Amino acid sequence: MALRLVADFELGKDVLPWLRAERSASEARGVGSGGADVVENDYESLRVLNIERNGNIIYTYKDDKGNVVFGLYDCQTRQNELLYAFEKDLEVFSCSVNSERTLLAASLIQSTKEGKRNELQPGSKCLTLLVEIHPVNNVKVLKAVDSYIWVQFLYPHVESHPLPENHLLLLISEEKYIEKFRVRVTQEDGNRVVIKNSGHLQRDRIAENFVWAQWDMSEQRLYYIDLKKSKSILKCIQDVFLNELLILYVLRLVNFGCDYQDQEKLSKHLSLCVFTNHAGSLCVCYSPKCAAWEQITYSVFYIHKGYSKTFTTSLKNVGSHMTKGITFLNLDYYVGVYLPGHFFHLLNVQHPDLICHNLFLTGNNEMIDMLPHSPLQSLSGSLVLDYCSGKLYRAMLSQSSLLQLLQKTRLDCEKMATLHCALSCGHGAQLLEGQIIQWISENVSACHSFDLIQEFIIASSYWSVYSETSNVDKLLPHSSVLTWNTEIPGITLVTEDTALPLMKVHSFKGYWETLNSNLENVKYAKPHFHYNNSVVRREWHNLISEEKTGKRRSTAYVRNILDNAIKVISNLEARNLEPRLTPLLQEEDSHQRLLMGLMVSELRDHFLRHLQGVEKKKIEQMVLDYISKLLDLICHILEASWRKHNLHSWVFHFNSRGSAAEFAVFHIMTRILEATNSLFLPLPPGFHTLHTILGVHCLPLHNLLHCIDSGVLLLTETAVTRLMKDLDNTEKNEKLKFSIIVRLPPLIGQKICRLWDHPMSSNIISRNHVMQLLQNYKKRPRNSMIDKSSFSVEFLPLNYFIEILTDIESTNQALYPFEQHDNVDAKFVEEAALKHTTMLLGL
């Protein structure tokens, strides 16, 4: 299953054996019954009541006399502790213990039938008690009402004193009010802790007339919905110690079969959850408890993004007995929507814009059959409680299952969503990337709606630096896909813009600072801040054009760019200590180094503009890590194909034809080139050389030249130099060499021609020399008499032309005596011309 549930706690394994051991010990001591007395038939009375902020689990059970017993399981020591026992037959509704385990609050329902397990029924007498349990002492009645009361101690984030004098207790009533009690304690007779002035506890009413409430035990936040003037207002209080109101957000609860003013229907027929994560997301998920199950509708308010999405899906094979509703699960960067036996929907909360980044699995998919079919409750910190079995799970995305799904699924939308789900997991990233790369190298053409290599490179590079600092997700692209117009089978979607929340915060810190940054981004930054290489593309083309014309701007500027590239290469090599299989990163490749260096400069400036308060040194390292990751992924993709086709001992040479294995590697290199070209991403130095050599190996001449002319193959000086040296001068090779030389840039072409000892290259060299001499030539009066003795052949047009060239060379030598000259002169031109003429005449 894409979702993996790891059991952190189980009543049957972590509590029941201890209870049996305690009972056996009591019987051995001759004690008739006690708090630990439990028999096999009483196991069904054992259930979880609460999970506190520190992870400790409070549970209850009834002994053989019907007494209510409270126990605590310490998640750190893995030990159980008996807290308190009521010697009355009561039903427990709620319970909480303070962090020092000196006070216990419990809400109990008086039994309505003797001798039977009592059901919670409206109208039962509810007692809310506060008990001193260190040691067991006084019992204080807080409430005695005919409605259910939920109790919860607050756990301070910073414990400044081993025994805080003040303890805050929340009471949430079914009668639509929330109260806060301030409980003062003191120590007497050594370690005995008692309530100070228990007859007059300070009490404050926090809210009235609410219709729904949720407690976030990990972050100590209270969410509730207040209905005022036909508006459903979501409110949140975090710092309950100061009564700080943090969020006011208007929810539009419509089309769910209940009127705004009908509070009873709203509270009973609405399944609603609020989820947050450390990246500053705030999601409100809700769904009605439908009378008919043929169609399910649920909505998610992405408050941190400023819009909501409503999803509708039809159910198949729905039985009349079906009563289970939707379960919402908090999975950090995702929200899971689960209907047992029917569907599982993973919603991306960091990047919810495109539906293709959400994974929707139906009952036809074997993956969802592995989830429990009992109702689940999502808690803070990706915890999930199964009340029926008494198991507490830690929910996480299963990388192995996601990888299997990626390999099996046929839909592009599912491939896209699964790829992003897997990469977001974080743990074991290197191993996972290796498995994904292996699959990509074998299925490079598996997707038709998007470029698989491109998407993997962008997404994986994004997640590699995502955790470095906040706001990175706003500055770097997480996907290569900007729009998605294809429907997802089995589900329909409606998106609506929503108003941003009103925040009243004493000081923005931690989560609230990140959330506020997200809201500011939505409010003011309509143009995307995501980095792109448009500026780099323009500047790179300018530099290449200057290089071709021989006009290069200041050497300091270019040197700084190339120094950036050196840092990237060094950072890349430091990440991979093992020798690479492919002959990459072994040559200069100035063009790719310029592109690398320009991207470093531009991305660094982009980060400096938008990452306020982050050290420049850290930004510099983030930039190097991000670009190094891009290049490293390209190297790994190529190495996976290299390894698959067993090209370990392959070396640069041209004296043999390409094999099927070499053609396969050439194909994937071409796909890598396509993926990087549209985004203008750099390639590892040596990539184009290797690509060209494989192209010469594998392609017929006309296909090879077409690839060169269309830009698929880029001729590097290293590749062409090796071609000139390795290939002999057969007619076929001469044709290839000449076709290559005429396609080279002039500066590189002149260098290469000097390596080829052939009349054709001499002709090209001569032409370039003559063109260079005559481009600034001005005709001057000359002696009409030509000294024929200085020429090897009596051919007046040639003799006259050579005399002009000789005169220009002499003048240039006099004007620029210190300028270096190559071995090409008028004599060389004369010999080349004669050889060429001889060849043309067939002499």
UniProtKB/TrEMBL annotation:
<dbReference type="GO" id="GO:1902004">
    <property type="term" value="P:positive regulation of amyloid-beta formation"/>
</dbReference>
<dbReference type="InterPro" id="IPR028010">
    <property type="entry name" value="GSAP_C_dom"/>
</dbReference>
<protein>
    <submittedName>
        <fullName>Gamma-secretase activating protein</fullName>
    </submittedName>
</protein>
<dbReference type="InterPro" id="IPR026172">
    <property type="entry name" value="GSAP_fam"/>
</dbReference>
<dbReference type="Pfam" id="PF14959">
    <property type="entry name" value="GSAP-16"/>
</dbReference>
<feature type="domain" description="Gamma-secretase-activating protein C-terminal">
    <location>
        <begin position="631"/>
        <end position="738"/>
    </location>
</feature>
<dbReference type="GO" id="GO:0005802">
    <property type="term" value="C:trans-Golgi network"/>
</dbReference>
